[in-house]
Specification:
The complex is a heterodimer of chains A (about 400) and B (about 220). With about 400 residues, chain A is of the alpha/beta class. In chain A, about 35% of the residues lie in helices and about 15% in strands. In chain A, the strands form four sheets. Chain A has an eight-stranded mixed sheet with strand order 1-4-8-5-11-12-13-14, with helices on both faces. Chain A has a two-stranded antiparallel ribbon with strand order 2-3. The chains are: A alpha/beta (about 400), B alpha/beta (about 220).
Chain lengths: ~400, ~220
């Protein structure tokens, strides 16, 4: 009976979680469990991923893209749920800085997410029901460990580059620390070696908003046929503010009213900025799972690279052969330039080969996803330079 | 850093050789052994790093203060970080490089002595080039015009110059002695970028050298 109820109650995200559309899926059975930092194993599990371009004969042109908190594998092609373009089509594609005519691009959905890699909305094979909060808490290192298994599955020993922003940048740093011999070059963008207290605090507000929604039902909403839309939308609205900047909000909305000349003296969305945030919240709920939001924000909170290396980030990169290009944005207050500078200091102390550029923009943290010509020039130039060192031809 | 490299330098004022490379940079490059690990402090738009990569096959890194300079360098594929010679050299471990180069930047640092000491700690050798404030044209301007000198090498007014620690060749030699640096090689260039006679006395260099390039190493 329970099974039948589940079948009816499960909504679109849940089916996407088990059977992702427009994606490849790598399944790892009982013989290949994923060891988690929490001390348990995840098995069986699956990773949904997309690839673009062609792997060259000596398998030396693979680029791994790591997505951010609310991203997914649909980096450079239409999103099957929202029908919108890929989240990084400005960066990844034919002739783009991460040029799919030169490189073989792989973008996996992280474990814990909800677009086809195993996460809390996936079906727990032991019960036949969604995992919900029975899903083990995962870390950035767990995500990377799973991605390394995906690369083994794809037969790719060494990556030409690993690139990502925000939570994706954390994965990039973890990749370089955990598997230095597999990472020829690394592009950590707008990220940090650890999540700051302020950022943990913001995440906690988001989680509490979800949990305060009566429809969350202690995480059992998929079983009970509810959906904590309002809580997740509020979480998204709060987080979205941290992705922008005061200057960008002012430039885009100022104090302008939404479709009205005067205030209504009510709690309607009088201001454009309110209307915009509400829209962000509502559209996010369509494509994202509330429990995944809890798990992924938690993974970012736990990220502290130095903690695994006697308290020194530099130890994580001792004798690293990886070539790094660290990028930050002037108006990013979620992962400010000082965080990137700390990465660079550690890399310098480790004697690593590192480039570091700060890009002037008022677009805040989200700048890494937006049209920033200087960002594109830097990524293109960096990859061209390391491509020569890797012996990649300019054009295939 | 405040090195006025390449385009910012005012192009025509600076002597270039037949293939268009700045003569002082060529002199620096000739002091570097092929294939060495090099850190260029104040690398500007990366002209020297490029020259070193092309002519000496070095593994080069750079530090540059200006965001524009850094971003130009990185977009060219050079390994350059944004940073300040006065504060960021402390991050680098001992003996990380074969050469640490400070090209036309010494006079713009807040603590030239500390910078030089760090260079000799980080690198087995240091190469320093700087405009010579003892050059006759500088001396004459101060003596006869009674004004802070302005030259091709030092084109700024006193109130907007990034150059806060001018020195002469003689001053620089004294600093080297004070910090126990060995002078392995030195070249002085005249206003046309031609090297002065190698066996000329120091006072002659100090008077007629418009700029100087020193190759230093740690004593002992």
């Amino acid at each position: 009976m329970a099974e039948a109820t589940t079948g009816i109650a499960r909504e679109a995200p849940a089916s996407e979680a088990d059977h992702p559309r427009d994606s490849e899926v790598a399944r790892f059975g009982a013989d290949k469990p994923l060891q988690l930092d929490a001390g348990v194993t995840l098995s069986p599990f699956q990773i949904a991923y997309k690839t673009y371009g062609t792997l060259n004969a000596d398998r030396s042109n693979a680029v791994l893209i790591c997505h951010a908190l609310t991203g997914d594998q649909h980096v450079a092609s239409r999103h099957p749920v929202t029908k919108k373009p890929g989240w990084w089509e400005t960066m990844v594609g034919p002739g783009k800085p991460i040029d799919t005519e030169r490189y073989f691009v792989i973008c996996p959905n992280v474990i814990g997410a909800c677009m086809g890699s195993t996460g809390p909305s996936s079906t727990n094979p032991a019960t036949g029901k969604p995992w919900g909060l029975d899903f083990p808490v995962i870390t950035i290192r767990d995500m990377v460990r799973a991605q390394a298994m995906l690369l083994d599955y794809l037969g790719i020993e060494s990556l030409f580059s690993v690139a990502g922003g925000s939570m994706g940048g954390m994965q990039v740093l973890q990749w370089a620390a955990s598997y230095p011999q597999r990472v020829f070059s690394a592009l950590p963008i707008a990220c940090a070696t650890r999540h700051s207290a302020q950022n943990i605090a913001f995440h906690e507000v988001g989680r509490q908003a979800i949990m305060a929604d009566p429809e969350w039902r202690g995480g059992r909403y998929l079983l009970e046929g509810t959906n904590p839309r309002r809580g997740l939308a509020v979480a998204r609205m709060g987080a979205h503010i941290t992705y922008l900047s005061d200057a960008a909000l002012h430039r885009k909305f100022g104090r302008r009213f939404q479709d009205r000349a005067n205030p209504t003296f009510s709690f309607d969305a009088d201001f454009e900025v309110e209307s915009y945030l509400r829209h962000q919240g509502i559209s996010f709920v369509e494509r994202f799972d509330a429990n995944s939001y809890l798990y992924l924000t938690r993974a970012m909170d736990y990220f502290d690279l130095a903690a695994d290396y006697d308290g020194f980030v530099a130890n994580a990169f001792k004798n690293t052969p990886t070539r790094f290009c660290v990028i930050s944005f002037t108006s990013d207050w979620l992962f400010p330039t000082s965080e990137s500078r700390a990465i660079v200091h550690a890399l310098n102390a480790a004697g690593a080969r590192v480039s570091f550029a700060e890009i002037a923009t008022d677009k805040g943290h989200d700048a890494f996803l937006l049209d920033e010509p200087e960002l594109f020039a830097i990524v293109r130039g960096f990859l061209d330079g390391v491509g020569q060192a890797r012996g990649l031809s300019r054009k295939r | 850093m405040l090195r006025r490299g390449g385009s910012e330098f005012g192009g025509a004022d600076i002597a270039r050789n037949g293939s268009g490379a700045r003569v002082d940079l060529v002199v620096v490059a000739e002091m570097v052994e092929p294939g060495a690990r090099v850190l260029d402090v104040g690398c500007g738009d990366g002209e020297l790093l490029r020259l070193l990569a092309e002519t000496r096959g070095v593994d080069g890194r750079g530090i540059e203060l200006s965001r524009e300079g850094v971003n130009q360098c990185v977009a060219k594929g050079l390994a350059v970080v944004q940073g300040d010679a006065d504060t960021d050299l402390a991050d680098y471990p001992d003996d990380a490089f074969d050469y640490v180069i400070l090209s036309q930047t010494l006079q713009a640092t807040r603590h030239p002595r500390v910078v030089l000491e760090h260079m000799l700690r980080i690198g087995r050798r240091a190469i320093v080039s700087f405009p010579n404030f003892g050059h006759w044209s500088v001396r004459l301007q101060l003596l006869f015009a009674g004004q802070m000198p302005r030259t091709d090498m030092l084109p700024y007014s006193w109130y907007d110059t990034p150059n806060i620690h001018h020195c002469t060749i003689k001053d620089f030699r004294q600093l080297c002695t004070a910090i126990g640096a060995r002078m392995e090689k030195a070249v002085a260039l005249n206003a046309w970028g031609a090297p002065l006679r190698f066996n000329a006395p120091w006072w002659f260099w100090n008077l007629f050298g418009e700029q100087a390039v020193f190759l230093l190493s740690r004593k002992g």
